[in-house]
Design brief:
This protein has 17 helices and 13 strands. It has about 450 residues and is of the alpha+beta class.
């Protein structure tokens, strides 16, 4: 491995800025040959569970913001037509603001980080940042916060990223690797008085810490013949026993057990020993997110010491990243493995039970805990101040993930010491938000004229 000096790494950033000026990132205009956004969405549906596809459309049609959450493939195609800095990192891949949140660290502390890596792949750092910044612009517009506030919030996320990358470029590699954000530390990103912020954080933390396996058992399962069984709440939660139109129950269970054994082999030995102490009790199809709806996702219920010691795991189908169409194939032939390794590169703290498997049908999955102190930012109740606070928090977090997987010295040199890049990304985000809104109108029209079907899952 070749080790470049700090000066050489910075020089790469300065050279990149000469070739692709910061101001160029403000540019956005649809390519004359731009694909029909509805056609791109429909093409993704071809490999998805048919009866869940209308649910995906139903969730996307709610607002321009929920639509944007499902457009990772559309934006990847659009970003591929823009200039690239050439400074690569491990991309989150779908870094919109709803793909960040809190969860429990292995040390049982509540931490904040990116939390969805279905599209992770190596690529130019600004692809993630543009995806994230545009999500804040669209969210602010959705909340009717006005042009000035929408621009300010978008500036916040990009400036927080730039300043954080500079901070990380001055840190030793090991110090950077250990850096993380515990929830009790996020007050430094807020302009609220510390006492008020701590009160809000305490309330948020208490709510997140209620998201446990026991809470999930109460919500998702019930007793049937002295045994817990997952409830039927179609279409968002459907026990596999209700979908046995192709296999016998024993055959389905055998397939799941084989996949689970393969998953256990992807874990560290000590963690493998832990999960193997649990006994599979039941399993169901579960609808998650917005863009992911229609991919195969299962929730698996296990019993430990007794029926008061449940474990819920989520097995989510892993398909090729939408970025691969433009950035090249992943070095991992197993897409569950791609996601897990990308997540471990980016996240400061990862689920101890995160692993991957390949089912008998040849489909890849990654597996993690379903409920482990998870909490998320509520866009619908956000104010201008809380959205700006969250923008700073997400900008910093994304920068850390990129610094762990890429070269913060090169990126910091590229971004410079002014807000020029933030102004360029804000201008891009405003233009792209208009494009996304046009795409949303096109999408709604396709639903209205029957080209695609949408149903609500309320």
């Amino acid at each position: 491995m070749t080790h470049k000096t700090l000066d050489e790494r910075r020089a790469e950033g300065f050279e990149a800025a000469e070739l692709v000026p910061l101001a160029s990132h403000a540019e956005w205009a649809p390519d004359p040959m731009r694909a029909d956004p509805v056609a791109l969405i429909a093409a993704q549906n071809e490999t998805r569970v048919p009866w869940l596809v209308p649910v995906r459309h139903g969730r996307m049609q709610v607002s321009p913001f929920t639509f944007y959450r499902g457009t990772a493939r559309i934006m990847a195609a659009d970003l591929a037509t823009t200039q690239s800095s050439g400074l690569d990192v491990q991309l989150v891949g779908d870094a919109h603001l709803s793909n960040f949140g809190v969860y429990a660290s292995p040390e049982r502390k509540l931490v904040f980080d990116a939390n969805d890596f279905d599209e992770t792949l190596a690529g130019p750092f600004e692809w993630d940042l543009k995806r994230l910044a545009a999500s804040f612009m669209i969210a602010a517009q959705h909340l009717d916060l006005g042009k000035k506030t929408s621009r300010r919030v978008t500036m916040e996320v990009t400036e927080a990223y730039r300043q954080a990358v500079r901070e990380f470029s001055l840190m030793g590699f090991l110090d950077l690797w250990y850096d993380h954000i515990a929830v009790d530390q996020v007050s430094r990103f807020s302009n609220l008085p510390r006492k008020e912020m701590n009160r809000r954080l305490e309330k948020f933390s208490q709510k997140a810490q209620k998201q446990t396996n026991l809470r999930a058992l109460d919500k998702l399962a019930h007793r049937v013949d002295d045994q817990f069984r997952i409830r039927s709440q179609a279409p968002v939660l459907v026990p596999v026993r209700e979908l046995l139109d192709e296999y016998e129950p024993e055959e389905i269970e055998q397939m799941i057990l084989e996949a689970f054994e393969d998953y256990a082999l992807s874990l560290r030995v000590d963690r493998r020993s832990l999960v193997e102490r649990y006994r599979l009790v039941d399993y169901a199809v579960k609808v998650v997110g917005v863009g992911s709806v229609g991919t195969r996702c299962f929730v698996l219920l296990f019993e430990g010491r007794d029926d008061g010691d449940p474990l819920f795991l989520q097995a989510k189908e892993a398909t090729a990243s939408v970025l691969e169409e433009h950035l090249g194939s992943s070095p991992f032939s197993q897409h569950g493995e791609r996601i897990v390794h990308g997540q471990r590169q980016i996240q400061a703290q990862s689920d101890i039970l995160l692993g991957w498997t390949r089912a008998r049908a040849g489909r890849d999955y990654y597996i993690r805990q379903l409920k482990d102190w998870k909490g998320a930012f509520d866009v619908e109740t956000a104010t201008a101040d809380t959205l700006a606070f969250y923008a700073r928090l997400c900008g910093y977090t994304l920068a850390r993930g990129h610094a762990r997987s890429g070269d913060p010295a090169s990126i910091a040199a590229y971004l410079g010491d002014t807000d020029e890049f933030a102004r360029a990304i804000t201008a891009f985000s405003e233009k792209y938000a208009a494009q996304a809104n046009d795409d949303y109108v096109t999408f709604r029209s396709a639903i209205d004229d029957g080209t695609i079907e949408a149903v609500t899952d309320e």
